[in-house]
Design goal:
The complex is a heterotrimer. Helices cover 42% and strands 10% of the residues of chain A. Chain A is an alpha/beta fold. In chain A, 44% of the residues are buried. Chain A has 3 domains: 176 residues, Rossmann fold (3-Layer(aba) Sandwich), CATH 3.40.50; 74 residues, Cytochrome-c3 Hydrogenase, Chain A, domain 2 (Irregular), CATH 4.10.480.10; 30 residues. Chain B has one domain: Fumarate Reductase Cytochrome B subunit, CATH 1.20.950. Chain B contains 9 helices and no strands. Chain C is 50% helix and 6% strand. Chain C folds into 3 domains: 146 residues, Fumarate Reductase Iron-sulfur Protein, Chain B, domain 2; 141 residues, Rossmann fold, CATH 3.40.50; 120 residues, Rossmann fold (3-Layer(aba) Sandwich), CATH 3.40.50. The N and C termini of chain C lie far apart (58 Å). Chain C has a 4-stranded parallel beta sheet with strand order 2-1-3-4. Chain C is an alpha/beta fold. In chain C, helix 21 links the parallel strand 7 and strand 8. The chains are: A alpha/beta, B mainly alpha, C alpha/beta. Chains in contact: A-B, A-C, B-C.
Chain lengths: 367, 222, 436
C-alpha cells in the first residue's frame, strides 16, 4: 500500500485496469485466461468472457476502503488465500486498497488521514468493504476505533461509497457477535445502511475466491444478481446439499453414524452427524478451499452452515437442522399430568351434569 | 430468531405440550365417564370374548367381502395415503433423524428407505390425498356429514405433504423457509390433534376392541 | 329436510301436550342417561368416512345422503358434545354445539324411525368399530321421552306396558289361543302354575298366522317339553323397544320376568320374533337391573339344541329349493348363526344362500317398528326391492324365515311388487316334518 503523494496516486487511479495490466506486463493471453477463470467461477456462460474482459480492461482501478468492525480478521485471512485472482494481483492491478488495518503499513493518525483523503478523492465512487458486526447497544460503545464508534464510522464511510461489500457473516447478518444473547447488540451492515447498494458475501469465513470473484465481477459489471439475503446468486444460488459429492449416499440412505465409524471411513453422508448442507447456500462443494484441495465434508465433517444467518444459534452442530431446538425441563411431562388431571375433572363434571340432567337415576340403560 | 428456529424451537415445544396434554385430557375424560356392567347371559367366556375383541382390532381394518364392491375404492384410497404417510414419516431419513433427536435415542438401528423411493411414495400419497379430498366433496354422504374438522385436518396434511415434497425436490424458494413451513404445519397438526378426528389414531383400538368383545359375547356378527 | 308425510303428532308420552322446551328437556334427559364411557367412545371415534351409508339399504336404495346412518344419531351426538365429554364447556360457551331443539328432533323423526330398522348392518361395516345402530337406539330414546316417537309406536308401547298387548284385540288373546288349539287339534298349555319353560307368542302370529302358533305347540308337545303360555305375559313383542321408551320397555319386560319367576321357569322361549330376542336375551337384565333368573333362547336355537341332543327327529322335505332370510335381531345382532341352518340341513333342505347371508343379510325392511309406520311404507318398499331381487337371484323356489315381523314385511312387499313367493315359517316347516 503506497504512501505516494496525492498527485501520483491520482494519475495511477485515472488509468484503466487494462492500462495498468499492460504496464505490468500482463499479456493478452494471460489476461483473457484470468477473465475466463473468473467467469467460470461465477458460472457465467463462456461467451460472456469477451464482454467481461472488455469491461474489465476499460474499468478504472477503483479506490477500495476496507473497514473492520467487530471481527476476528478471519475474513481477511481467507481473502489472502485467494488463488485466482490472488490478493496481490488484486491490490496491485485491479483495485487501490487505500485502507486496511492488517495490510497497511501506516498506523494511527496517518492511516486515518490517508483514508479520509482517499474517500474525498473518490467520493461517490469508492467501494467500501466491511467485515465484522457493528455493535449498537449503548450507543455502540462496544466497538470503537480512532475515537469513533463503529456505528458512526460505518455511517461516515458509507456516505460516499458507490457500493458496500459486507464480507463474512458478521458484516452480513451479525455473525458470532450477534449469537445469543447478543450482548453488544451486534448487527450486520445492511441493518444500518439502507440507502446504498450492499452485496453480502457471507461465510465464516467466506470462500476466498467468492470474495475476490465478487469484487472483480462488480468492477466489470456492477452489482450482480442477488438473492433475498443480498448474496450473489452466482456463488450462493445452490445449496451444499444439491452440489455435494456425497449426495448419492444421502439418497441411498447410507450415513455415517459416528465419526470414524465404517460409514465415515467409506465417505458416506454426514447428515446424521449434523451436516447443514441441505439449508446452506454457498460454493464450497463446487469451488472447494485451498485452491480446490478439499472442503469440510470432504474432510469428514458436516457443513456448519456458516454462510447462513444465525448459524451459531441453530442448535448443536452435530444435530441436524430439523432437530428440536428447545430444552424440555419437564414441561411435557407436566402437560401430560395436567391432561390426566383435567380429563378426570372433565369426566367428574360430565357425570355431575349427567346426574343433574337425568334427575336421580343416572344409570345407563342401553345394551 | 429465524422462522425455522421458531418452528423447531418454542413452537415445537409448545405443540408437543399441547399434544400430550390434549390427548390425555380427551382419553381420560371418556374413560372415566363410567362403564356399565353387562348382566346378560353371555354365550362365551370372558377370555374368548376378549379374543374376539383383539381380532376385531385387526379385521375391522378391511371391510368384509360383502361390503367390498361398494367400499373398496374409498377404503383403498384412504389406506393408500395412510400407508404412504406412515412410510414417509417412519422411514424417510430426515424424519428418522428427527424422531431420534426428539426422543433422545440413537437411530442407527432404524431402517430408512432410499430418498428416491420416498419421493415416489410422496407423490403417490399426494395423488391419493387429492382423490380423497375430491371424493369427500363429490360423494353425497361424505359431503353431507363432513364438517370443519374434516376439512381442516385435510388442509394441515396438504400443507405438510406439499411443503415436504417442495423442500426435497427443491422447487424454489429458500430451503430454510420451506423447511420452517413444513415444521410449522407439523406443529399445527400436533396442536389440532387432540381436538378433532385425528384422535381416531387412539380411539381405534378401544373402540374396535370393545365392539368385538361385546359382539363375541353375543356370538353376533363382528 | 322434511318428507312428504310426517306422521308424528305432538303428543306427550303420557298423552298430555308438552311444551317445546319440555320436550327438549326430556330429550336431553334421555340422552344424558346414556352419557357413559361406552356411548362416548362410540361418538368420539367417528371419522366421517361415510362407509356406514354403504351398508344401509335405505341409502343404497335411494342414494339420498340423509340416510347415512351416523347422521341419524346426530341429535344425540350434539347433546353429548355439548354436555359431556372433554370439551363440553367450550362447546357450550362458544356456541359451537347448539342445544338440541324441538325442530331438530322433529326433523330427525323420519331418520330415526321411518328410515331405520335398527338392523345393525352399519355397525358391522364401520372401520372404527362404532355401534352405530346402538347410537340410533339411544337417539330414539330421546325422541320417545320428548313425546316425538311416531304415534303408532308410542301408543302401542303405552298400551302394551299397561295391558300386555300393543292394541285392543277383537277378542282377548288367551281366548284366541285356546281356539287355535281347538281348531288345529293341538294341546296348548295356558296358565299352568308351574313349568320349566315359559313361551311367548308374536301377536302377529296370533292374529295372522295361527298355523305358526299351532306348529310351535305341536313341536313342543312332541319333544315333551314342560312348558306353558301365560296370559299375563303372552306377547313376545316389545313396543317399548321400538318406540325407544326405556321406561315402557322395562315395564313390558318386567311383565315377562315376573310371570317366568312366578311359575319357576328356568327357560323362556322366544318364538319366531326378532327384536323380542334382543329385548329379552341381551337387554332385559340391564334394563331391570339384575341378572335374569332364567335362560333365554329363541325357538330355533332351542330346537337346534334338541336336534343335536337327539331329542328332536326330523324327516326330509321334498326336493324344493329354499332361500332363507336371516332376521337381523336373531342372527346379525343376536348371534344365532347356525341354528336355522342346522335345522334346515337335518330336513335336507336345498338351501340357496343369498349373496348377503347370515350376519350380512339385508333387513326385511320391517324391523325396528317400521312395519307399523304407514308414513314409511313408500320408502320401505324401495329398500325392500333390493332384498326381493336378491332372494330371486338365488333361484330358489320357496322362501323361509324365522321371524313373524319379517313375514309381515315380506308379505306386504310381496303384495306391492306382485312377488311370486310366499314367506314361510321355519318353525312351521319343522313342525310339518317332525318325526314322532
Amino acid at each position: 500500500m503506497s504512501t505516494s503523494n496525492r498527485k501520483e496516486r491520482s494519475a495511477i487511479d485515472r488509468k484503466t485496469i487494462g492500462q495498468i495490466m499492460d504496464e505490468n506486463g500482463v499479456g493478452r493471453r494471460r489476461f483473457l485466461k484470468y477473465c475466463a477463470g473468473i467467469t467460470a467461477l461465477m458460472a457465467m456462460p463462456p461467451g460472456m468472457t469477451a464482454a467481461f474482459a472488455q469491461q474489465l480492461r476499460a474499468a478504472r482501478r477503483p479506490t477500495v476502503i476496507y473497514m473492520p468492525f467487530q471481527e476476528c480478521t478471519g475474513c481477511l485471512e481467507s481473502l489472502t488465500r485467494s488463488f485466482a485472482p490472488s490478493l496481490e494481483s488484486l491490490i496491485f492491478e485491479t483495485i487501490s486498497l487505500d485502507y486496511n488495518h492488517t495490510l497497511q503499513a501506516a498506523a494511527g493518525d496517518a492511516a486515518e488521514a490517508a483514508r479520509h483523503e482517499a474517500m474525498e478523492e473518490a467520493w461517490g465512487e469508492y467501494i467500501l468493504i466491511c467485515d465484522g458486526s457493528i455493535p449498537t447497544r449503548m450507543d455502540g460503545i462496544y466497538g470503537a476505533s480512532a475515537g469513533h464508534s463503529f456505528v458512526d464510522q460505518l455511517h461516515e464511510a458509507a456516505e460516499g461509497a458507490a457500493a458496500i461489500v459486507a464480507v463474512g457473516v458478521c458484516a452480513s447478518y451479525g455473525g458470532v457477535g450477534a449469537a445469543y444473547p447478543n450482548p453488544t447488540g451486534a448487527v450486520g451492515v445492511s441493518d444500518i445502511i439502507k440507502n446504498k447498494p450492499i452485496i453480502n458475501v457471507p461465510g465464516c469465513p467466506p470462500m476466498p475466491e467468492v470474495m475476490t470473484g465478487t469484487l472483480v465481477s462488480f468492477l466489470a459489471s456492477g452489482v450482480p444478481e442477488l438473492d433475498k439475503h443480498l448474496r450473489p446468486k452466482a456463488f450462493f444460488g445452490n445449496t451444499i446439499h444439491d452440489r455435494c459429492y456425497r449426495r448419492r449416499f444421502y439418497d441411498e440412505g447410507k450415513f455415517a453414524e459416528s465419526f470414524d465409524d465404517e460409514g465415515a471411513r467409506n465417505g458416506w453422508c454426514l447428515y446424521k452427524l449434523g451436516c447443514r448442507g441441505p439449508t446452506t447456500y454457498n460454493a464450497c462443494a463446487t469451488i472447494k478451499w485451498n485452491g480446490g484441495t478439499s472442503w469440510p465434508v470432504e474432510a469428514g465433517h458436516g457443513c456448519l452452515g456458516c454462510s447462513e444467518p444465525d448459524f451459531w444459534d441453530q442448535g448443536g452442530f452435530y444435530e441436524p437442522m430439523t432437530a428440536k431446538l428447545f430444552d424440555d425441563t419437564g414441561q411435557i411431562a407436566a402437560g401430560a399430568a395436567a391432561g390426566v388431571a383435567v380429563g378426570a375433572v372433565a369426566a367428574v363434571a360430565s357425570n355431575r351434569r349427567k346426574k343433574k340432567l337425568t334427575g336421580a337415576a343416572d344409570k345407563e340403560t342401553s345394551s | 430468531m429465524t422462522l425455522l428456529e421458531f418452528a423447531r424451537g418454542p413452537m415445537l415445544h409448545f405443540a408437543l405440550i399441547v399434544f400430550v396434554f390434549g390427548v390425555l385430557w380427551r382419553l381420560v375424560s371418556v374413560a372415566l365417564l363410567g362403564w356399565r356392567k353387562n348382566r346378560a347371559e353371555s354365550r362365551v367366556s370372558t377370555a374368548k370374548a376378549a379374543t374376539g375383541g383383539a381380532v376385531a382390532v385387526g379385521n375391522r381394518s378391511w371391510p368384509h367381502p360383502e361390503f367390498l364392491n361398494r367400499t373398496a375404492f374409498g377404503e383403498a384410497v384412504g389406506y393408500g395415503y395412510h400407508i404412504g404417510l406412515f412410510a414417509i414419516v417412519l422411514f424417510g431419513t430426515p424424519h428418522v433423524v428427527f424422531w431420534g433427536n426428539l426422543f433422545g435415542i440413537g437411530v442407527s438401528w432404524w431402517p430408512t428407505l432410499p430418498t428416491g423411493l420416498i419421493t415416489v411414495i410422496s407423490i403417490a400419497t399426494i395423488f391419493l390425498m387429492l382423490i380423497a379430498t375430491i371424493r369427500r366433496y363429490m360423494h353425497a354422504p361424505l359431503r353431507r356429514i363432513s364438517n370443519f374438522d374434516d376439512w381442516f385436518s385435510l388442509a394441515i396434511l396438504w400443507v405438510l405433504m406439499v411443503s415436504g415434497v417442495w423442500a426435497v425436490l427443491g422447487l424454489g424458494g429458500s430451503k430454510e423457509t420451506i423447511l420452517a413451513i413444513h415444521i410449522i404445519s407439523f406443529n399445527v397438526l400436533l396442536i389440532w390433534f387432540p381436538f378433532g378426528k385425528l384422535m381416531h389414531a387412539f380411539y381405534i383400538f378401544p373402540s374396535r376392541f370393545i365392539t368385538g368383545y361385546k359382539h363375541e359375547k353375543k356370538g353376533a356378527a363382528s | 329436510m322434511t318428507t312428504a308425510s310426517q306422521n308424528f303428532s305432538r303428543q306427550g308420552a303420557s298423552g298430555a301436550d308438552l311444551s317445546p322446551s319440555e320436550r327438549e328437556e326430556n330429550a336431553m334427559q334421555a340422552f344424558a342417561q346414556n352419557f357413559g364411557a361406552y356411548a362416548a367412545l362410540n361418538l368420539e371415534a367417528c371419522i366421517h368416512c361415510g362407509m356406514c351409508a354403504d351398508a344401509c339399504h335405505f341409502y343404497i336404495a335411494t342414494e339420498d345422503p340423509k340416510y347415512t346412518p351416523i347422521l341419524k344419531a346426530e341429535p344425540f351426538k350434539q347433546a353429548y358434545r355439548r354436555e359431556s365429554g372433554a370439551f363440553a364447556p367450550f362447546f357450550k360457551l362458544l356456541g359451537l354445539k347448539k342445544k338440541v331443539t324441538v325442530d331438530q328432533l322433529e326433523e330427525w323423526q323420519e331418520l330415526l324411525f321411518d328410515s331405520c330398522n335398527l338392523c345393525g348392518r352399519c355397525s358391522l361395516i364401520c372401520p372404527m368399530g362404532i355401534e352405530v345402530a346402538e347410537l340410533i337406539e339411544i337417539g330414539r330414546r330421546g325422541m320417545a321421552e320428548a313425546g316425538l316417537a311416531p304415534k303408532a309406536l308410542a301408543e302401542r308401547a303405552q298400551h302394551q306396558a299397561e295391558t300386555g298387548q300393543p292394541e285392543e284385540s277383537a277378542r282377548p288373546y288367551p281366548e284366541v289361543l285356546n281356539e287355535i288349539g281347538r281348531e288345529h287339534e293341538v294341546e296348548i298349555p295356558l296358565d299352568k302354575d308351574s313349568a320349566d319353560i315359559m313361551v311367548c307368542l308374536p301377536r302377529t302370529d296370533l292374529e295372522q298366522n295361527p298355523e305358526s302358533v299351532a306348529a310351535m305347540a305341536r313341536i313342543l308337545n312332541t319333544v315333551g317339553a314342560d312348558y306353558t303360555f301365560r296370559s299375563d305375559a303372552l306377547i313376545a313383542e316389545n313396543y317399548g323397544y321400538y318406540a325407544g321408551s326405556t321406561g315402557l320397555q322395562k315395564k313390558i319386560t318386567q311383565r315377562v320376568v315376573d310371570q317366568a319367576e312366578k311359575i319357576g321357569a328356568s327357560l323362556v322361549l322366544v318364538p319366531e320374533c326378532g327384536h323380542a330376542y334382543t329385548a329379552l336375551r341381551w337387554q332385559a337384565a340391564d334394563i331391570i337391573g339384575k341378572k335374569l333368573p332364567f335362560r333365554v333362547r329363541h325357538i330355533t336355537e332351542y330346537l337346534a339344541e334338541l336336534l343335536a341332543d337327539g331329542k328332536l327327529k326330523l324327516g326330509k322335505v321334498n326336493g324344493d329349493s329354499f332361500a332363507f332370510h336371516d332376521p337381523c335381531q336373531l342372527v346379525r345382532k343376536g348371534g344365532i348363526m347356525d341354528a336355522p341352518r342346522e335345522l334346515m340341513q337335518a330336513m335336507g333342505v336345498d338351501l340357496r344362500e343369498m349373496e348377503n347371508k347370515k350376519g350380512f343379510s339385508f333387513c326385511c325392511g320391517g324391523g325396528g317398528g317400521v312395519n307399523d309406520l304407514e308414513s314409511a311404507r313408500p320408502l320401505r318398499h324401495r329398500a325392500q326391492e333390493l332384498k326381493l331381487r336378491e332372494i330371486d337371484d338365488t333361484g330358489a323356489k320357496r322362501f323361509l324365515t324365522s321371524c313373524s315381523d319379517c313375514r309381515v314385511a315380506f308379505n306386504d312387499a310381496g303384495e306391492h311388487f306382485n312377488w311370486d313367493k310366499k314367506t314361510e315359517s321355519l318353525v312351521e316347516l319343522v313342525a310339518a316334518n317332525i318325526k314322532e
